């Protein structure tokens, strides 16, 4: 099952704007993707509340996982998004 | 966590005719508890234009843009309850958790908030709270 572990790159962590953008991107993927921190339970990446409940800060390692057709692309796309500083693109 | 949210920043009988009016009220409370300067309120409105801070279960988390951190005097939260609801881009918002943050200490309390909202009973308790002590208890248990 495609899995990627990345470090959150957004200055304000995975909440607020970065979380909103991440959740929206996850909802667009053809397969459900889960996200987890450490050994905690994996939660749906397309659920804002679930993503907020992770409490992921800048520098926190998170693991994405998906299964099915297009899973690798979905995981890669979302991993790349997480690694970027989405706050810096605030304008 | 206790110093981030204090009972004087919890207002449970608010009323607002629009999303922006609700955000202004949130900003005013953050100003009144000495957490932010008045410029922060405009930054909160700007942020909302850019991406909605509605997170689900009748709750929004208005906050300023990253550039407005210079207007934050201390990290703090405010909880405003709108018993009549506020039309938030088509969502019915009952509770705003307004955030003033220069650091990332508020992320843990937001995680607690999210966990509360994922539990239907606790979410209902938060939306109908009439005592600041209940709000403090809900957000500090997880």
Automatic annotation (TrEMBL), chain A:
<keyword id="KW-0963">Cytoplasm</keyword>
<dbReference type="GO" id="GO:0009401">
    <property type="term" value="P:phosphoenolpyruvate-dependent sugar phosphotransferase system"/>
</dbReference>
<dbReference type="InterPro" id="IPR001020">
    <property type="entry name" value="PTS_HPr_His_P_site"/>
</dbReference>
<dbReference type="InterPro" id="IPR035895">
    <property type="entry name" value="HPr-like_sf"/>
</dbReference>
<comment type="function">
    <text>General (non sugar-specific) component of the phosphoenolpyruvate-dependent sugar phosphotransferase system (sugar PTS). This major carbohydrate active-transport system catalyzes the phosphorylation of incoming sugar substrates concomitantly with their translocation across the cell membrane. The phosphoryl group from phosphoenolpyruvate (PEP) is transferred to the phosphoryl carrier protein HPr by enzyme I. Phospho-HPr then transfers it to the PTS EIIA domain.</text>
</comment>
<protein>
    <recommendedName>
        <fullName>Phosphocarrier protein HPr</fullName>
    </recommendedName>
</protein>
<dbReference type="Pfam" id="PF00381">
    <property type="entry name" value="PTS-HPr"/>
</dbReference>
<keyword id="KW-0598">Phosphotransferase system</keyword>
<feature type="domain" description="HPr">
    <location>
        <begin position="1"/>
        <end position="89"/>
    </location>
</feature>
<dbReference type="InterPro" id="IPR000032">
    <property type="entry name" value="HPr-like"/>
</dbReference>
<dbReference type="InterPro" id="IPR050399">
    <property type="entry name" value="HPr"/>
</dbReference>
<dbReference type="GO" id="GO:0005737">
    <property type="term" value="C:cytoplasm"/>
</dbReference>
From TrEMBL, chain B:
<keyword id="KW-0813">Transport</keyword>
<keyword id="KW-0597">Phosphoprotein</keyword>
<protein>
    <recommendedName>
        <fullName>Mannitol-specific phosphotransferase enzyme IIA component</fullName>
    </recommendedName>
</protein>
<keyword id="KW-0598">Phosphotransferase system</keyword>
<keyword id="KW-0808">Transferase</keyword>
<dbReference type="GO" id="GO:0090563">
    <property type="term" value="F:protein-phosphocysteine-sugar phosphotransferase activity"/>
</dbReference>
<dbReference type="Pfam" id="PF00359">
    <property type="entry name" value="PTS_EIIA_2"/>
</dbReference>
<dbReference type="GO" id="GO:0009401">
    <property type="term" value="P:phosphoenolpyruvate-dependent sugar phosphotransferase system"/>
</dbReference>
<dbReference type="InterPro" id="IPR016152">
    <property type="entry name" value="PTrfase/Anion_transptr"/>
</dbReference>
<dbReference type="GO" id="GO:0016301">
    <property type="term" value="F:kinase activity"/>
</dbReference>
<keyword id="KW-0418">Kinase</keyword>
<dbReference type="InterPro" id="IPR002178">
    <property type="entry name" value="PTS_EIIA_type-2_dom"/>
</dbReference>
<dbReference type="InterPro" id="IPR050893">
    <property type="entry name" value="Sugar_PTS"/>
</dbReference>
<feature type="domain" description="PTS EIIA type-2">
    <location>
        <begin position="3"/>
        <end position="142"/>
    </location>
</feature>
<dbReference type="GO" id="GO:0005886">
    <property type="term" value="C:plasma membrane"/>
</dbReference>
<comment type="function">
    <text>The phosphoenolpyruvate-dependent sugar phosphotransferase system (sugar PTS), a major carbohydrate active transport system, catalyzes the phosphorylation of incoming sugar substrates concomitantly with their translocation across the cell membrane. The enzyme II CmtAB PTS system is involved in D-mannitol transport.</text>
</comment>
<keyword id="KW-0762">Sugar transport</keyword>
């Amino acid at each position: 099952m495609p899995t990627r572990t990345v470090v959150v790159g957004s200055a304000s962590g995975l909440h607020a704007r970065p979380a909103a953008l991440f959740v929206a991107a996850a909802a667009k993927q053809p397969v459900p993707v889960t996200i987890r921190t450490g050994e905690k339970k994996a939660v749906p990446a397309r659920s804002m509340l679930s993503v907020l409940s992770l409490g992921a800060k800048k520098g926190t390692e998170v693991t994405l996982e998906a299964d099915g057709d297009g899973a690798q692309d979905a995981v890669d796309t979302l991993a790349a998004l997480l690694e970027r500083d989405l706050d810096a693109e605030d304008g | 966590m206790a110093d981030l949210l204090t009972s004087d920043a919890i207002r449970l009988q608010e009323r607002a005719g629009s999303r922006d009016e609700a955000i202004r009220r949130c900003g005013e409370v953050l100003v009144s508890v000495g957490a932010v300067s008045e410029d922060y309120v405009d930054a909160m409105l700007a942020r909302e234009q850019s991406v909605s801070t509605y997170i689900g279960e009748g709750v929004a988390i208005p906050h300023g843009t990253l550039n407005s951190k210079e207007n934050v005097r201390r990290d703090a939260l405010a909880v405003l309850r709108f018993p009549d609801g506020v039309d938030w881009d088509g969502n019915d918002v009952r509770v705003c958790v307004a955030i003033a943050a220069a650091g990332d200490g508020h992320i843990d309390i937001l995680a607690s908030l999210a966990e509360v909202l994922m539990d239907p009973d606790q979410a209902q308790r938060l939306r109908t709270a009439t005592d600041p002590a209940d709000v403090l208890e809900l957000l500090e248990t997880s």
